[in-house]
């Protein structure tokens, strides 16, 4: 394979660093960007830069937002007595697609994983406990993934929250073991929410 000129090689390397993008896809995308009209490339670059500069975490639930508090937290029609705890912001998008949940959320930004050096202090657990002191919450639904780390995190949270006197439930396993919320279909997620169990 012939050596790439430096600008193309740099573009290829940056694209290859993205998750789910292999060498061949990165090469195709790099050539596609080069073939795009200059104005479209500028718009793409501006969108990337703008998203990175303007998006941050909601001060209440730690979802992604471009304002202090996210749209879901600002929605007064939602059930403020229920908080669904998820691993990542993309899990909220998956839950919202199910149309089966109308409460609020709390994003942990990860799961417990001692092998990777991720303990409770690296997650947004302290912030969740603070919310429970400040807000009237009657139920916490734990919607972490059904893999080993997700289950360990759910168990840890349940043990931590039970003494607080709030109902703690876990979404039912309508989700396949090892599956991610992000890729689950709407019906499966809706059934998982309906059949959640108390922990």
TrEMBL record:
Keywords: DNA damage, DNA recombination, DNA repair, Metal-binding, Zinc, Zinc-finger. GO terms for molecular function: DNA binding; zinc ion binding. It comes from the Bacteria. Residues 81-176 form the Toprim domain. A zinc finger (C4-type) spans 58-73. Belongs to the RecR family. May play a role in DNA repair. It seems to be involved in an RecBC-independent recombinational process of DNA repair. It may act with RecF and RecO. HAMAP family: RecR. This is Recombination protein RecR. It comes from Phascolarctobacterium succinatutens YIT 12067. The gene is recR.
């Amino acid at each position: 394979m012939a050596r790439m000129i430096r600008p193309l090689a740099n573009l290829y390397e940056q694209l290859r660093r993205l998750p789910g993008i292999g060498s061949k896809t990165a090469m195709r995308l790099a050539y596609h960007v080069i073939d795009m009209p200059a104005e479209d490339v500028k718009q793409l670059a501006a969108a990337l830069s703008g998203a990175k500069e303007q998006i941050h975490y909601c001060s209440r639930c730690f979802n992604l937002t471009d304002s202090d508090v996210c749209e879901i937290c600002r929605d007064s029609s939602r059930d403020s007595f229920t908080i669904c705890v998820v691993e990542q912001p993309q899990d909220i998008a998956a839950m919202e697609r199910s149309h089966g949940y109308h409460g609020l959320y709390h994003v942990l930004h990860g799961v417990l994983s001692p092998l990777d050096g991720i303990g409770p202090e690296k997650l947004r657990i302290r912030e969740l406990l603070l919310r429970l002191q400040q807000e009237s919450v009657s139920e916490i639904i734990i919607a972490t993934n059904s893999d080993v780390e997700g289950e360990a995190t759910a168990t840890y949270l349940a043990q931590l929250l039970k003494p607080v006197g709030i109902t703690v439930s876990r979404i039912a396993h309508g989700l396949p073991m090892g599956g991610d919320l992000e890729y689950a279909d709407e019906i499966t997620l809706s059934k998982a929410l309906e059949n959640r169990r108390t922990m």
